[in-house]
Amino acid sequence: MKVLIVDDEPPARDRLRELLGRLPDHEPCGEAGNGADALRLAANLQPDIVLLDIQMPGLDGLEIARRLATLPHPPALIFVTAYSEHALDAFDTHAVAYLLKPVRLERLEQALISASRLNRAQLTSLTAEREETGRTHLRARLGQRLELIPLADVYYFQADQKYVVVRHRHGEALIEETLKTLERELGNRVIRTHRNALAMVAQIAGLEKTTDESTRLIFQEIPDRLEVSRRHLPAVRKCLKLL
């Protein structure tokens, strides 16, 4: 995978180049210290991935990211910065990952693997798909990293104090959005099963009764069971009849 490094600080570029040299499946194809050079190199070199700082003179990283998204073959974006407060804005530009400096090799490698999962066709259609069908990914915090989880991989959401746990195809993750916000934004793609839980309708396999006469939702592909409250049971049954 070809990687373009964009950072206005030479030591930061040196560090990223050195880390990439230790990862056999990725190689730097160019470096830029400002936005104009970054856009020119991206258009000419067509990198698969761009490692992008946010705070730079002239065009900042967020604006660069928005312009890169308009290229005929947009690269996957990984933000590398010292400032965590830009994380949500970064993911609004469809960044694949967000790394805080100083970057560690294992975190960079994980982010590059995530970026490599997206082929060029997926990257090209990501913005258009979001405009047409609504959100396609969730922003999840994994330690100090933030990553994108495709909604197509999500089974259900469950509130846990001030966070929401997302159960997805590859495990669990925490997000900082509320169930109410998710329910409003995702609309009929989710169904409320309990005051503390939402299920993705496309992933539901059916209902089952337990020995204590409570009702549980069962899912395709995973053994998890999600409680359905008496209050929400009629709506869930009606939803399943329409599937």
UniProtKB/TrEMBL annotation:
Signal peptide: none annotated. Pfam families: LytTR (PF04397), Response_reg (PF00072). The keyword DNA-binding applies. The keyword Phosphoprotein applies. Residues 138-242 form the HTH LytTR-type domain. Residues 2-116 form the Response regulatory domain. Keywords: DNA-binding, Phosphoprotein, Two-component regulatory system. The modification 4-aspartylphosphate is found at residue 53. It comes from the Bacteria. SMART domains: LytTR, REC. InterPro entries: CheY-like_superfamily, LytTR_DNA-bd_dom, Sig_transdc_resp-reg_receiver, WalR-like. This is Response regulator transcription factor. It comes from Candidatus Competibacter phosphatis.
